[in-house]
Amino acid sequence: MQWTDTANPTYFHKVVDCQWACPAHTPVPEYIRLIAQGRHDEAYWVNWVSNVFPGVLGRTCDRPCEPACRRGRVEEKQAAKPEPVAICRLKRVCADNKSDEFRAMVPKPAARNGKRVACVGAGPASLAVARDLALEGYAVTVFDGEAKPGGFIRTQIPRFRLPERVIDEECGYILGLGVEWRAGQRVGSMKALLAEGWDAVFVGCGAPRGRDLALPGRDETRAQVHIGIDWLSSVSFGHVTAVAPRVIVLGGGNTAMDCCRSARRLGASNVTVAVRSGYAQMKASPWEKEDAEHEGIPILDFHVPLAFEHVDGKLTGMRFKKAKPGSEAGEEVVIPCDEVLIAVGQENSFPWIERDAGIAFGDDGLPVLDKLSFQSSLPQVFFGGDAAFGPKNIITAVAHGHEAAVSIDRLLHGEPVTQRPPPHVNLVSQKMGIHEWSYDNAVTLDLRSKVPWAAAEAALASIKVEVELGFDAAAALKEAGRCLNCDVQTVFAPKLCIECDACVDICPMDCITFTADGPGLRERLNAPALNLMQDIYVEGGLKTGRVMAKDEDVCLHCGLCAERCPTGAWDMQKFMLITAKAGAASRDHATRKEVA
To answer: Which key words tag this protein in UniProt (predicted)?
Structure first.
């Protein structure tokens, strides 16, 4: 059996499931511990370095970290509905409770290095690039057709989910670094932009075109049928302030959920969501579906739209085929309505990039990019966010921005853009004395805390009243206590082990097994390790020739093995991984110098 290479930073990184799953690799347990200690400025800083928009993401993130959270797995025998730590909503806690002194923590940009970078679009990817490069002394200019920065964060996410003050604040931190903001200047020609002599160009213009449905009656009912993302933008800017009484929303993604909940607040008495897939297959996040249903909005699955019904051009309803799961058969039904919002997907649109500008596009209409560096076929042009590989989410766009900024920085230092430095990693013992640790390792049995909501009468009466109120201090502390500190690793030193099996006896999850070396290890553990996505920690070199095998999948990181061990063979060591951002740390050692 091959023993575990714990010197490889990937190994312990994968054990911190939440950080591994986060596209920006935010050190989740670290900021949760800081929140538990009331150190909100520092918790916000940890987030700001990694994901740039803690307040925005604390309300709107797609939360890839939460399905990965170990808490949901270890609660399977304890709770009827095992749930992860409320990682996303705890992020909001530090954003809401940080002090004004946080501004003093934002570093001053380095002296200007003479290099100019243009960012097209003011969404999360472009703003992440702008922040990272501005700190390194680049003169960054952001172009956008709107009056305020934020991109789809500002135009498509309703104010009842994300107040505008949060967007203003977090975009302001970035523009405050000396980034030039060109409001109301939509780039109309890539060739003209390149002619201005930029050292690099980043395209983060999103996927701005919503898909339409070419169904019978579409042309006749054009006045009452709207593209979802365009309609949300009109609502955001105050151009739309009311809707018809009966509204149907087509689509099963998060945009559809925003549309239906917005329509409810703008006066619709009857809002229905119709989706062609099954309920479980909808692209919307589970909590987004739950929120819509909590507000009395029915979701009809397996409804395939067939036509817009109308009388003399006035929309009267929609005709659907009510399909049977796994079958093409189904009866036709007509649902009466006065207005329809189409939210069946988004697609990229680059009419402003001339096809002879030197940037290659694939058959899917997307630019041909290197997936690591985000560099296009024109070396000085990079893409990121939805503009790169199609619609995703905010945290993915931020991750793209970080990587593109590293690529731009390396390019302008004459270094290969496809190479990346290793992350900053360390392991530090948490032992303070005999049976004393620098973190709280008492595992609570508390179930997930519920985020309080505003009263329904107020929340549904206005498009601008924030629905979720966020955790108060007591609830935040309780929820933070559910975190298992997965970044505090159980590290084993075989030379110190006397094979007394004390750790085996005390482990509450039967994670640890001392057994003969050889194949079939997963089946021979005290508790079979069935999750193949999580590694087995295997160490040899024991005096009996056996190996120590620990299942990382359901380990509580409670530290009982280390407390019980009479020889100190087990230690609890905090693992910290910070990915390299643009700047000296991301360059080759020989060229870690200022841009000439």
So the answer is: Iron, Iron-sulfur, Metal-binding
